[in-house]
User: Which sequence fits this backbone?
């Protein structure tokens, strides 16, 4: 089950469970659409994977399966993946 992390790892923007601006990679690294597109160029800086829009969990199921409250922020800042 997806964690539904509460923020962008790059700019710390709030990304509530119903946000259509949340983008994730296959490891659930979570970024806002602005950072995913403009800062990261569509490539996850943690794993090198691409992003997709995070699905919305129906509100009726959030009580039983709540979103994560643990915030993750890249302490070193957010930079695009460099080609090897």
Assistant:
């Amino acid at each position: 089950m997806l964690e539904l992390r509460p923020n962008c790892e790059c700019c710390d923007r709030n990304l509530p469970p119903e946000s259509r601006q949340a983008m994730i990679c296959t490891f659930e690294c979570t970024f806002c659409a602005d950072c995913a597109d403009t800062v990261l160029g569509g490539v996850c800086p943690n794993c090198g994977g691409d992003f997709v829009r995070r699905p919305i969990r129906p509100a009726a199921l959030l009580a039983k399966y709540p979103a994560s409250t643990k915030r993750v922020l890249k302490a070193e800042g957010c930079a695009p993946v460099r080609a090897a």
Remarks:
- The radius of gyration is 13 Å.
